[in-house]
Prior knowledge:
Layout: E1 10-14, E2 17-23, E3 30-35, E4 38-44, H1 54-65, E5 74-78, H2 84-92, E6 97-102, H3 105-114, E7 123-127, H4 130-136, E8 142-147, H5 162-171, E9 172-184, H6 189-201, E10 204-209, H7 211-214, E11 220-227, H8 233-241, E12 248-250, H9 252-258
Parallel strand pairs: 5-6, 5-8, 6-7, 8-9
Antiparallel strand pairs: 1-2, 2-3, 3-4, 9-11, 10-11, 10-12
Helix pairs in contact: 1-2, 1-8, 5-6
Amino acid sequence: MNEPAEPIPVTRDVDWGTAKLLPDVDRPRAWLLTVEGSPQSYVDLDDPTHLEFEYAQRVAHVLDAAAEPDRPLDVLHLGGGALTLPRYVAATRPGSRQRVVEADRGLIALVAEHLPLRHGSGIEVIAGDARGELEAAPAASADVIVADVFGGSRVPAHLTSLEYARAAARVLRPRGHYAANLADGAPFAFLRSQVATFAEVFTHVCLIAEPQMLRGRRFGNAILVASHAELPVAALARRAAADAFPARVEHGPALERFAAGAGPVHDAEAVGSPEPPGGAFSVG
C-alpha cells in the first residue's frame, strides 16, 4: 500500500502580499497561514478545537463564556484569515450562524481551495471592508463580534475609533460581547486609548493578556472585551489562568489605572496599532 503523500507548503500571491500555507509536521492535517511572513492563522482540519495561538485561545474563552454550553450563537467575524475561530464555534456550538468578513479576495480563494470548510458549517464568508460591513449589518443581530483585522502587522485606524465602537454596539444584542485582538507594547498609548474608547461606549470592558506583556516587558497581543452586560470576569480569569501560557484579566479599578490619562479617539485622529519590533511576529 502506498503511503499518503507528505503535505507540501503552498505559496501564493494574494491581494495584500504573499501568503504561505505551511504544514505542521506533528499534526497530519494542520496548517500555519502566514502573510508577508507574519503568522495569521493556524488550523487543524481534523480537530478545529485545537487552537495553537495564545490569542485565539483567549478569544475562544470569550466565546465559551458568552452563553451556556452548546447553545448556538450568531457571530460576526471581522477578519477571516484561515477561519480558525469560525471553525471552533462551528465545532463547539453546532447550529451557530456565522458571517465572516475578509478584505483579501485572494486569501479567501486560497483558504477555500486548500482548507475547505466542513459541509453544513453554517459559516458564510464574504469579501469586504470590515467597517463597511459592520455598519451595514442589522441592528441587534449578533451575540458576539470578533475583530481580528490586521493590515500587515497593524490594526487599521478605521477599526479603532469611537464611531467604530458605536457601530459595534449597535450590531450587538443587549447581552452581546465584543472581542478584539490587539497588539501593543509599553508605554501602551494605543492599547490605553482603545480601553478609553470602548469604555466610552460600553458599560463593561476588560483586557486579557499575559502579565509580562501588561508590565511592559515585551510587545504582544491583548484581547479587549466589551459589553453592555456584566462580563463573566471570574470565568474568563479561570480559563486564562489555566492556559499553557497563563494570562490574567484586567478589569475594574486596575483597568482604570492602566488607562488613566487616555481619552477616546474619533475617526479624525484615529491611528492604527504600532508596528511590532523587528521579528516580533515573523516566521522565517
